[in-house]
Amino acid sequence: MKSRDRLRIGAGAGTSDDRMVPALELAERGDIDYLVFECLAERTVSRENLARSKDAELGYSPSLHARLRMVLPTCIAKGIRIVSNMGAANPLGGARAARKEAADLGLGDVPVAVVLGDDVSSIVRHRPELKLIENGEPLESILAKMISANAYLGADVVGEALNTGAPIVLSGRVADPSLFLAPMLHEFGWSYDDLPKIAQGTAAGHLLECTASVTGGCFGWPSKKEVPDLARNGYPFADVKADGSIVIGKTPDTGGRLDVMTCTEQLIYEIHDPTAYITPDCALDITGIVLTQDSADRVRVEGARAQSRTETYKVNVGYADGYIGEGEVSYAGIDAVARAKWAAEIVKERLKLQGFVYDDFRVDLIGMSSLHDQVEIRPEPYEVRLRLAGRTRDRKAAHAIGFEVRAMHMHGPGGAGGACEPRVRDVLAVKSVLLPRNLVNSQVLVEGTL
Amino acid sequence: MSVRVYDLAHARAGDKGNTSNISVICYDAKHWDFLERELTPERVAEAFKHVAKGPVRRYPLRNLKAFNFVIENALGGGVTISLAQDIHGKSLSNVMLAIALPDPEARK
Q1: pLDDT of amino acid B106
Q2: Is A123 part of any domain?
Q3: Which of B4, B8, B85, B90 is the best substitution to test chain A (most A C-beta atoms within 10 A)?
Q4: Does B61 touch chain A (CB under 8 A)?
């Protein structure tokens, strides 16, 4: 196997909209070997599938261009390999786009290893009996509206892609921690039977997958949980040794904080049952993990355990489910809340008079009850923003909400101001099924010459 | 006299489908037993009843001086179809932090 006995894996993105500059700082000053961009939220692949259906070259993450343009010169010069799921619904198209960015930057012919096989839509289409995890109904119930079906692939196939030697690896749907575990499998030759190491690597991946969440992002609280220089917060990396030891650190000379408190919040984040956080690589048990501050901005991770990976892949099925329409308008001063409530009733009545129906409808008084409800017990603010939103199969009904809210300027209670344009968006709903591993044919292709 | 969760612990909320996942992490490990006794799933369900149907499950994480609360039917049907402004329920950690617990001795 490889001779390397340690490596440093950096986190360059934790969502498609993540900040970009900290990734460049990490590449320039973080002394990293790998830079991982995790850019797929639950419904991103569905959205990109729609983009691809309009233009066959599209369907990868639109942020791919800007991210690669920024970091590629540094990464190629320093030999930092890039791993990312920015391939989204079209990893091959993403690879071609990446290669073009490299060529345009004067970096020559940069090969890209592509992970394929996560798109299982043609497989599940023939298995309408598969049970939806969320409600137990058969897949058949949403099959006619299905836009995409993607299995969460694991670190194994991404590791195979790294074995090709390509400087860039692009995938579609891969579980977030698996993107980080893959370089460890590749460099250290870890086997899936070596559960303590798979567990440690998965825990490290989970700690890194939300970038700034371990370096002071989504954490600070005035005078309670101070975060120094948050405006310049840096991105994290993991120092991993072949024996499975892990230390989390962050780019030198950046803001933010990385300590046991920030790491604990991220470790538990979205983990549900902490004895069995199921990824495609293992069922991680974090209950034995001990975090210790090694030195400033460095936290050691020990004691992760795991059970073997399950026999199935989780598959996200995206489907079109109508439209959400919304509108907003503001009231301030004397009786602001009473006028907002009156406006809400008028809009609802006008929608009803036009015969529009909604599967779900909601009235928010922003400033009082839009996040935690219970309008009846909240103190009245000086000014309030009224928001109405509804979900419906009828695009016209969706648009009418924002239209009628905007009309409060001229046709509602006195003193309405600042209505927004009517907003309508397609609902891309997601449900999931489990698919036996042997039905999924993951594979690696290389675009370009190695 | 009462003490808020906020006084003893920090918290972060995340999501998965229609389920909210909220961590509660003690500033000081010595408060873990108190929270284990007082911050019961029943009390949390009561505090969230206006936003979540439940059920609520609590997972102890003594090594991390923490708990993980998993609250079902909490996100307006799920992130992808919810009409809420905060579709991920990221702000729900503040419902947890505001829970008042009946023990003035807890802070000692």
Answers
A1: 55
A2: no
A3: B85
A4: yes
Whether A219 contacts chain B with CB within 8 A: yes
Check: complex ipTM more than 0.85: yes
Asked whether A114 and A87 are in contact (CB, 8 A), the reply is yes
Residue A42 pLDDT: 82
B17: chain A residues, CB-CB within 8 Å: 134, 430, 432
The residue of chain B nearest to residue A133, with distances taken between CA atoms, is: B17
Look at residue A1 in the predicted model and tell me its pLDDT: 41
* CB proximity A430 to B under 8 Å: yes
With H, G, I as helix, E, B as strand and everything else as coil, classify residue B97. Answer: helix
The pLDDT tens digits of the residues spanning A99-140 come to 999 999 999 999 999 999 999 999 999 999 999 999 999 999
Tens-place pLDDT, residues A20-31: 999 999 999 999
pLDDT value, residue B78: 86
Domain that holds residue A325: 317-432
Residue with tokens 């073009």: A100
Closest by alpha carbon to A388, among A418, A335, A343, A354?
Answer: A343
| Domain topology for B3-103 | Alpha-Beta Plaits (3.30.70)
Say what the pLDDT of residue B108 is: 54
Residues 56-85, chain A, touching B (beta carbon < 8 A): none
CB contact A17 to B (< 8 Å): no
- The CB-based long-range contact list for B55-61 (8 Å cut-off, 24+ gap) reads B59/A273, B59/A274, B59/A275, B60/B36, B61/A268, B61/A274, B61/A286, B61/A287
Domain final residue pick, A256, A279, A310:
A310
Beta carbons of B15 and A270 less than 8 Å apart: yes
Same domain, A99 and A230: yes
Give a yes or no: residue A146 inside a domain: no
Q: How many domains does chain A have?
A: 2
Dihedral angle at the C-alpha atoms of A18, A19, A25, A30, nearest 10 degrees? -30
Q: What is the pLDDT of residue A2?
A: 44
Q: Do B64 and A361 touch (CB under 8 A)?
A: no
pTM (predicted TM-score): 0.96
